Amino acid sequence: MTPNARQPVLFVGHGSPMNAIEDNAWSRGFRALAARLPRPRAILAISAHWWIDGTFLTGNELPETIHDFGGFPEELYQIEYPAPGDVALAENVAARLADRRASLRLDWGLDHGTWSVLRHVYPEHDVPVVQLSIDRRLPPADQFAIGQALAPLRDEGVLIFGTGNIVHNLSHALGVGWRGGTPTPPWAAAFDADVARALEQHDAAFLVRALSTADGRMAHPTPDHYQPLLYAFGAADDRDAVQFPIAGFAYSSLSMRAAIFGG
Known about the structure:
By secondary structure, the chain is α/β, with parallel strands linked by helices. It has a single domain (9-261), classed as Protocatechuate 4,5-dioxygenase, Chain B (3-Layer(aba) Sandwich), CATH 3.40.830.10. The protein is built from ten helices and ten strands.
């Protein structure tokens, strides 16, 4: 592959930070993604965990590894993912999103939504990574439109990578699912299936309104883990076949589905 070969778009359900250090079905699934993806020149990551007012990009030459969680084993806090940044890419994206008043910031880095997956996919941390914030003030249609504006980056060798979860009811997962043996509730299974079907059919209208449905409200008490999918899907187009290399639920109600568009 040439450095500027057209890249697919990737969305990954990242789940628990523990997937960064555990050998389980999800971490093995992350590792297997490497064989399905052409090597990118750089990665533009949109993580559920940089969910703020405004559109910003990491402008760090060496982004910090952010441990944005609490109550986990000390081993997890020792993990570093020292991938380089790409200031030129960050500036390029900011220019493309000038109508959103996008700008660079140095007070963020790579949060666990990004590095807990990438440390398995690119363990040598030798692919530059830039993170793009999610503007939580925007309606879903505008978040989808930002993804559309990013689509030309694919032809410049940039992998657009969204990371969240298609179903993310954390209260249910921690209240019931963590005990194990709890079946996936019908609303979670139905929403995951409906979103997968919409992705296969390139049904943007459904995806933009999905959180307003009854199952969508149950699947996402807050929209932060769904919205990276809108950015990623916006960067895909009708020519892109959709594959689901990872599927299933962790803790009963966290969908771990991953989607590759155009791979």
